[in-house]
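An example makes the point: we print one protein in full, the chain in one-letter code, the fold tokenised, without further comment:
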Amino acid sequence: MADPAIISAMLIALLLALPGALVAQPPSDTLRLSLGSKEVDASYFQPHAARVRVYVKTPGGEERMRAEWINVLTVGDSAGIKVHRWVTTGTQYPPTGDPVRWELKQTYDARTLTPYGIARTVSNGSASAFRIEGNRVTGWRRANATAPQRDTSWVVAQLGFVASASDLVPLAVGFSPGKVMTAPLWGPNMPTSEMRIFTVIGETEVEVEGAKVRAWKVEERRQADRVLIATWWLTPRSPYMVYGEVPLPDGSIQRMTEVEVPMPKQP
């Protein structure tokens, strides 16, 4: 039988030799998700409309509203595939200057959240539209109202869930205390997907626009360095995301509230 002291020394040496791998890897019982994973099922999402307000602290310590938008979800069909169509109309309120208005249209597979189309227009004239087929993205961009429209096409090594709607991932998987899941996140301005870790902390109460709401608290971290990207409070019913906090580079916290509003009349 080997000397226990020798075995202990060998184990310590091995641990010291692989610090990056040990720190970066999530627990072995983690759900490792990708587009099409059977654990992801967003088909229970219902058509609804919800208003999101984004608040930040001013240098003087006061809070101001940075942005506001309305999310509208409708359920439809595209070539025999059930899809979710999200239309978001919003306004950005910069500290100085005129407000900037924008509209974002996104189409996802209703079950898997696979993205099929993303289009954005902004009141300053910038615009973009992309079609996603498998790992290939084709579309165009325009920097401003007078800039030319530039076509673009590229292949993403590993396509991921849309980063701007990352909160949908844990919603589509479901909640239980301590559940951990990893997933690739991607957006049209990202050259490749980035792995994120979602951890369900537990069910708690949070204040949303003056009302107490019971919701699941979920942390989203970048897998590479475990940096906290956002903390979400989510419910398995409309408006699904009720509250969120995002750490900013200056150390402050950007917070978001979401409440259900009447569904707009369809044209």
